[in-house]
Amino acid sequence: MNKEKEWWKKSVVYQVYPKSFCDSNGDGIGDLNGLTTKIPYLNKLGIDVIWLNPIYQSPQVDNGYDISDYREIDPALGTMEDFDRMLEEAHTYGIKIILDLVVNHTSDQHVWFQEAKKSKDNPYHDYYIWKDEVPNNWGSSFGGSTWEYVEEVGQYYLHLFAKGQPDLNWENPKVREEVYEILRFWLEKGIDGFRMDVITLISKDPAYPDGPVIQNKAYGSYYAGCANGPRVHEFLQEMNREVLSKYDIMTVGEAPHTSADEAVPYTAAARNELNMVFHFDHMHLDYNENGKYAKDRVKLTDLKKVMTEWQEKMQACNGWNSLYWSNHDQARAVTRFGNESPEYRVRSAKMLGTVLHMMQGTPYIFEGEELGMTNAFFDKIEDYRDIEALDIFRDFTERKGFTAKDTLELLRLKSRDNARTPMQWDASENAGFTEGTPWIAVNENYKEINAKACLEDPDSVFYYYQKLIRLRHEIPVITDGVYELLDAENEKVYTYLRKSEKETLMVIANFTEEEITYQADEMQDGGGRLLISNYEDAPETFHKQMTLKPYGAYVYYG
Ligand code: GLC
Ligand code: CA
Q1: pLDDT of 2 higher than 80
Q2: Is 48 a catalytic residue?
Q3: Which residue among 232, 433, 477, 556 is the one 20 to 30 A from 266 at the CA level?
Q4: Whether residue 108 has pLDDT greater than 90
């Protein structure tokens, strides 16, 4: 691949969760026409690419990750004409569009599955994974066993996620050809790439081994027989050869249960698989014996270790990183990694943005992150919509013996719904998201935290992100420079360099609310000029001895 084709290395991606972005027709659900009206806003922010969560026809058991027709738009989100108009509008602004490709599983309402479950000799039966007996102890992501019995055929089918999300059988070449046809359909429409949902799970170990029971769960972990399975690289190379390599696009694979070493074969350029993957190593640092639903905070030294490992290993293999603090499956970045209190919310949101956007890789901004949006503050289970939240509530209160109050506190910190509350556009009713009743409640703090307020305030998180994005476009060392961690053992300050032959960048970030006296020797006094800081009075040139303000972020360039 030549440099020009690697446009995604200089790009910043903005993730839109369509259901929660902007509702154009008052039914309370965000839609494509709503998104189209907001493209000028995204253009103002300066992003290059929009990643859309699934927009295809779906019974919405898992908010669109259960697809019943890959070639239709879900009626709640609009029509194919709306999609075409949205794509054209985005392209007019020079913004690219990537879609979510969900092909580890379909919906149980997909015609393939409807046929498959009719009889064992139905031509579609072998599109899915069937066993006469339950072969192992695997638990599905949203509760219960991964194996579901179907009377008509007297067999169990595999579903790693909800019952309504049966896993496709990638061993069947017909399934793979169907998937490639879906890819071609959308690529021929002119889209610019794909985010591939749980793509590391598509190849299953034919032994279907039991998994360890971890995190006090009721069942064993399916990762033992699914993550980075025996044929996954063969499948992706085939997909690349058959389809991806024929288009000028970007691809990012969601990679659960994948270490930096395991990510190498997916992203190393010479292997022709994917451009980059989303790893979860930094997302797991605040897990405890109950897994994700924990009150623990991430230790900065652990965070540095993980980020540094990925920076180094992706560079060494000529791969590429995806950089993110949050997405539709995670808590809000400022709540989880920063400080959402009124005093430090804006400051720490900018600090987090700085640390991420100066690294090597493609940064992903989750909708509302550019406003410093926070977790949802839901205080009753009825507020939640997500299948995962409802399952956790049941499991923790009924099986694990947690009180409802404690469980709600954990959901308040970690539920996926924290990211899915409507985008806060302005201070009018429902934050300007809808004129109807939103499908999930708007965060109460919308009168203070919203896009309109940000656009009117030159000091807002929005304009800071706008500058971060511009810097990435303008300064080559942010794309190419070698990453070097400094001060690894420091529990309060994250400092790193980015170095190329001619340029050096030093990033210093205070992760605490204390003022810190700090010494760094890697640049000469007066040697680097200030590129960006979240404090107006930050010294214009570098000084070896510095005072770092609470959540202060400073980038020097020389
Ligand atoms: C991915 C998606 C998540 C979904 C799951 C099953 O992790 O990001 O939202 O529930 O896959 O498709
Ligand atoms: Ca709507």
Answers
A1: no
A2: no
A3: 477
A4: yes
Nearest-5° Cα angle at 372, 370 to 374: 130
> Does the pTM exceed 0.85?
yes
Please report, rounded to a whole number, the percentage of residues in the chain having pLDDT higher than 90.
98
The tens digit of pLDDT for each residue in 276-326 reads 999 999 999 999 999 999 999 999 999 999 999 999 999 999 999 999 999
What number does the ligand 1 atom closest to the CA of 105 have? 12
Collect all residues with Cβ–Cβ distance below 8 Å to 503 and sequence separation of at least 6.
475, 476, 477, 481, 557, 558
- Which residues are found with C-beta within 5 Å of the ion, ligand 2? 23, 25, 27, 29, 31
- For residue 182, give every residue at least 6 positions away whose Cβ sits within 8 Å of its Cβ, in sequence order, or none: 70, 71, 101, 103
Q: Which amino acid is at 260?
A: A
Q: Does residue 164 contact residue 237 with C-beta atoms inside 8 Å?
A: no
Segment 183-212 mean pLDDT: 98
DSSP bridge partners of 176: none
Q: Which residue has the tokens 């992760």?
A: 511
Amino acid at 309: E
**pLDDT at residue number 218:** 96
Q: 193-196 and 250-254: which strand pairing?
A: parallel
**Catalytic residue (choose from 62, 197, 340, 370):** 197
Q: What is the separation, in whole angstroms, between the first and last Cα of the chain?
A: 30
One DSSP character per residue, 108-150 reads: TTSHHHHHHTT-TTSTTGGGB-EESS--S-BB-TTSSBSEEEE
Active-site entry in 23, 31, 74, 254: 254
